[in-house]
Specification:
Blueprint (H helix, E strand, L loop, with lengths): L1 H14 L2 H23 L5 H21 L5 H23 L1 E3 L2 E7 L2 E3 L1 H17 L9 H19 L4 H17 L4 H19 L1 H15 L6 H24 L2 H11 L10 H12 L11 H4 L13 H6 L1 H25 L3 H25 L17 H26 L1
Antiparallel strand pairs: 1-2, 2-3
Helix pairs in contact: 2-3, 2-15, 2-17, 3-17, 4-5, 4-6, 5-6, 5-7, 5-16, 5-17, 6-7, 7-8, 7-16, 8-9, 8-10, 9-10, 15-16, 15-17, 16-17
Amino acid sequence: MKRIEISLEQNKMREFNWGIFIPALILSILGILFIYSASKGAGNTAFLLRQSIAFGIGLFMMIITIYLPKRFFETYWFIFYIFSIILLAAVLVFGQVVYGTKGWLKYGSLSFQPAEFAKFGLILALAGFISRKGISISNIRDLFYSAILVIVPFVLIWMQPDHGTASVLLVLYLGFLFWVGFNSFFIYVILSIPLLVLFSFKGFWFYIIALVIFSLLTLFFRKKLIFTLIVIGLYISIGFITPLIYNQLQSHQKSRIDSFVNPTLDPLGTGYNVLQSTMAVGSGGLFGKGLFQGSQTQLRYIPMQWTDFIFSVPTEEWGFLGGVGVILIYMFLILKIIEVANLTDNKFNSIVCFGITIIFIYHISINIGMVIGLTPVMGLPLPFMSYGGTALIINLIFIGFVLHTHRTYVLKHNE
């Protein structure tokens, strides 16, 4: 009898993937700590309180998600998707404008950002659609239907306007296509075009170097010469088209691009945040100035540093080693999620887990990139760490789904 109890306890331990839970927990706690550090100089503890409450709600939702029936999301994915679309439509009518974006539904002191929930709804919808019997993404009809699932929430979010979150949906879709075996050469070309545009904005030599690298990489796909030449021709045309597009942009759009290319052009305006954040990152040195001791942080030189620019806080206060430490935790978490996506033999769960991975990677790379001046400021929060209750709750639900996937796999193979 004693051996059976030990065996059951061991099975219980194997059901729960601590390698995913603990990194997410650490990042969430670090986020609360750095939000407090970033906001305490303003004498405002409301951010700390709200994020802590959201953390508690997120943990509760995560636990519920873990122990839901094994095919719950696979059965009801369409309801989640439709509900997310209804919320996105509602926010355009009844939403509150915050920082120029009509993206929040508010009731009393409570607020909710439907675009964050829409990420979860779309992941479930794409996974639910493609995992159905008889559906193949290589079929033009099925590819079209899957694209419609993306276009609807994309347009609604773009209208808020929240271009950063809208871009997340497109990247998510490309990652989804890659995971289910769509033409990798096509995905590569689609991803490389916006990168080449960004490099062309940076300057002529940036564009030339990127052009050479992307063109050489096309050779590794070993496609017919005509296809390779067409793609390289497309890359070359970007160098001529980008200036024409730039000239057609409105003044505020041009200023954002200009501040990305050279923040010093408008050091007190559009380039201010990037200049101050890079200064904070650089001033931290190797070991940092100490917790609550960052001059840029405590004197509030970086506006809203507890949201999009939260990464400047650990890098200034804990230095280069602190920043690398945070990145390593993210990398470990992402690798563990990919491990679960590969492990499960449930196609729906595998697609959802990889979709979660894509969202995390995109948010992390863009957010940290904009803090150190490598990517444009797009308003994408750093997962688990940036201030934002809805984002934190949804991210913890994401973790709950991955843990749910791991648990159902272990239970199935222990039967």
